[in-house]
Amino acid sequence: MDSLALCLLKVGRFTAGSPAAHPDGSHNPLRNDASDKNLMEDQTVNNRQSAGRSGTRLMTQITDRLRGVVGRFSTAEPTEHKPRRSRKGIKEPSVNKSAVNTVENMALSKLKPTGMKLQKARPAQIRHLEAEIQGLKQTLRDVMASVQQNQTHYLPEVFRQVEQRLRNNDIHEALTKAIIDAVYSQTQPSESQDRRLLEKRLALLVLQLIRQAPAIESVKVPGYKVALLGPTGVGKTTTVAKIAANLKLNHGRKVALITSDTFRIAAIEQLQTFANIAGIPLSVVYSPTEMQQEIERYRNYDFILIDTVGRSQKNQRQLSELKEFLDAADPHERHLVLSLTNGKRTLFDVATRFSDLNPNRFIFTKLDESTTPGVMLNLLYKFQLPVSYLTTGQTVPTDLRPARLKEMAKLILYGNSGV
Predict the structure, then answer these.
(1) Of 104, 82, 114, which Cα lies nearest the Cα of 11?
(2) Secondary structure (3-state) at 401
(3) CB 236 within 8 A of CB 350
(4) pTM value > 0.90
(5) What is the pLDDT of residues 190-230, one digit of tens each?
């Protein structure tokens, strides 16, 4: 009886997983050293006097303590029992039978062989497993990133060839992928090697992404104002001369020229020479006020064409000054002139910064010098502006072509070789 009592007492202390009393003497509800000492003394004395009587009292004390331990840590709520009286009229303590059974089962499980020992993992093993798991997670992330960047690996060979051609024509990679995927999603397996069908569907899709501005010569509004703006060196002055010559010589319209490009003497002389030959009036303005005065002077002309000074897209002060001239002129059309000899990053930067000046048309120049005219699509898709003209050389007025959708689509898909 003594050994069984001690065994149950130990199980009652440690099966709940609570630590022993703290070294500083703080209270631990699972352990009362004074009570344990008294309990052990009582047990020794009573065993010597009467084994039966002391064993009964000892088991009652152990049961009370086990009931308290299990009541604290068991997830199941204990069932309450009303105190009952013995046949001799002595009030006995209430016992949680389910708690006692639980503890007994736990004690038996400690005593019975399981056939296998469960060892607690050492910290070094845990760290090794965690490191291995983190490595697997990183590998998975790398694979997913690679798949996302190269999702066209599943494409048939014909599609991959066309995709590479579009990239070589300086079309943005994301836009190229979107176009190829859109066409591929509409392609049946039996059509996946049909290049002619692929090219046709690509052309139809590109035609939906670009816009053509109405021809200027079709406008019938008196005093219709058209301004050209853009960075330096893109050919604004030559282009405005080409438009003026086309309107007067080919369409018989009455045209006036205004320039605010007073920073380049050669530009004024060049435009003045052309105006004298073509018989077109030219005014040079040095302030927004003079711009308004000259606009009023030519208000009865069919068209007033305005050449502005070239400005760097990185100089905000100069762009603000240019905006003052444009606001004074208040043109019906503002054409942003861009050279196709520039790369896609430069063109995108220029178009973004000049967007504060509210352009509503694109003119693309130097098509004859460009090796990647497909760069146009990046701007047309991003800024959703129509194209009015393409220029192909220095000759006035012949090297100026009104924008045509089919021609632009061919330039985008095939470069200069496709025109």
Answers:
(1) 104
(2) strand
(3) no
(4) no
(5) 888 899 999 999 999 999 999 999 999 999 999 999 999 99
